[in-house]
Amino acid sequence: MFRRRDKASFFSRCCNLLWPSMGWSRTGNYWAHRVSRLPGSVYSIAAGFACGAAISFTPFVGFHILLGVLSAWLMRANIIAAVIGTAVGNPWTFPFIWVWIYNLGVWLGFGSGSKHEGDLDFAALFGNARQAALKFDLTFLADTVWPVFGPMLLGGIPTAIITWFLFYYAIKHIIETYRHSRVERAMHKQPESKLEVKTPIEYNDD
Fold first, then answer.
1. Under a CB-based contact definition with an 8 Å cutoff, are residues 154 and 100 in contact?
2. What is the residue range of 92's domain?
């Protein structure tokens, strides 16, 4: 179910991630059906997906799946749904997410932001931050990374909370609608004879 007969190459999968071959509308429907068919309660699946989506709005790039799984586990939600939910953060959405949470953090009062406005390269910053962390270059992390990461963290927390509720209720509605339609289709497929109500057999006292 939902699997290709011929396994796609790594290059094809990368291209499909950037621009789905089946189109954005069909891709959205595909993932909606896939999430709806996951085993578990409506709460478990919706909360799991919401956890993954919410974590995508934090600056912990490279740890979204791990943090999404951990948050889903703490909430007793579906872990697979959490992994799928992290796809909300992708090469198309990350630039908007990073700009939003950074500016929100500055607006909330974390620094002035004037030193970094207009010339921020978030992708390069995260790459350099990873290398600096591996080399224990605390000076670079404190002077260059933290003035940007700090506002993103401050702006990401309220954004993640709001995102969780938005995706929870949206996915909850999708799953309930999907399961209700499946029940209706199953009832219509049953033979009419099975749907007829049988009257009890009457016995004479004689």
1. no
2. 39-176
